[in-house]
Fold this protein.
Amino acid sequence: MLVDLFDFALPPERIALRPAAPRDTARMLVVTPDALADRIVRDLPSQLRRGDLLVFNDTRVIPAQLEGTRGDARIGATLHKREGPRRWRAFVRNARRLRDGDLIDFGAGVAAAARDRADDGSWALEFAGDEPVELLLERAGRMPLPPYIAGKRATDARDADDYQTMFANEPGAVAAPTAALHFTPDLLAALAAAGVDHATLTLHVGAGTFLPVKADDTADHRMHAEWGRIDAATAERLNTVRAAGGRVIAVGTTSLRLIESAAGDDGVIRPFEGDTAIFITPGYRFRGIDGLMTNFHLPRSTLFMLVSALMGLERMQAAYAHAITRDYRFYSYGDASLLLP
């Protein structure tokens, strides 16, 4: 399909620079095949059914953005995928100043050698020393806010909490699974009282999620791989819910992509551990999920293509037009949508 089909005009002022407070007071647009309803996230228990199951991504964002020097050149790096105990693939700013083997000094006693430049322009960074890389990043790194936020304001201390979900447990993401940012303990308790349970899986979100689609046709776009895991107990639980007539509702496109990667043509979700580069566009047949809660996405993005695959392109263009007209807040710190096909 032509990428132009997934374009829409978004006023810059609709981009949220801070999350709603409290988190569950964010607005929520409920989208079904025949209706649009303006709600808030706290209304979620009334929008779901007893026996439904919400699936959250428990990845934890690491301080994956680094600023350093190589000689007199300033080098910026955003880690996006772990390749080994001390080796991360990274998108690098000012990469033309690097050669294989160059040592980048990130300050605070943190340095890494640049290795193996890939066709997409990324470099592998091999961190020096014996300390765990996680400790090095805590010293020298900062929270990797999306470019559409970081380009409008500086990262600050609030983001260390604001950009982590309440489920964050498994370190390794360089972007938050932002749909889950709306959840609070009180909301989870209200959902449980309504008979809606939850489960978790892990997908370490990479910086590739922010890369623009440069191809003219979706068939020519290639996704960056991300590592994920669904254990056997969670897979069995999801299958049991569906067999009993409940719905599996993914919270976030990351949860959805991993469930769909683990689901077979028979609709059975199986344990999964490894990389996924699944790219979902209209025409895709969903096998493992029955709905999605997600934020509002960039024009021409793979994520807007995904929600259009779930609900239909015309339906999502109408939903986004409604959201823009009604002053919904967009992107990572913005409002939510609940998509029920």
